[in-house]
């Protein structure tokens, strides 16, 4: 039985259609100097594609 990597489940979300979603980077601290529009742009999840997405899917066998 293949185990799911728990670190991947905390960082990514799989939608019902099978797309991978990821968080936007640079949102943890030093946000006071950023414009409000920049902060709001980073509040949504982004679709994760490419070669790295295949590696992430390998760590999520049950989703």
From TrEMBL:
Molecular-function annotations in GO: structural constituent of ribosome
Biological process according to GO: translation
Keyword Ribosomal protein (UniProt): yes
Keyword field: Ribonucleoprotein, Ribosomal protein
One of the record's GO cellular component terms: ribosome
One Pfam family matching this protein: Ribosomal_L35p
Domain of life: Bacteria
Family membership noted in the UniProt record: Belongs to the bacterial ribosomal protein bL35 family.
Name this protein carries in UniProt: 50S ribosomal protein L35
Species annotation: Candidatus Sungbacteria bacterium RIFCSPHIGHO2_02_FULL_49_12
């Amino acid at each position: 039985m293949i185990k799911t990597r728990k670190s991947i489940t905390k960082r990514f979300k799989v939608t019902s259609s099978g797309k991978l979603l990821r968080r936007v980077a640079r949102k943890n601290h030093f946000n006071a100097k950023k414009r409000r529009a920049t902060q709001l742009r980073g509040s949504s999840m982004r679709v994760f594609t490419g070669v790295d997405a295949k590696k992430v899917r390998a760590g999520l066998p049950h989703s």
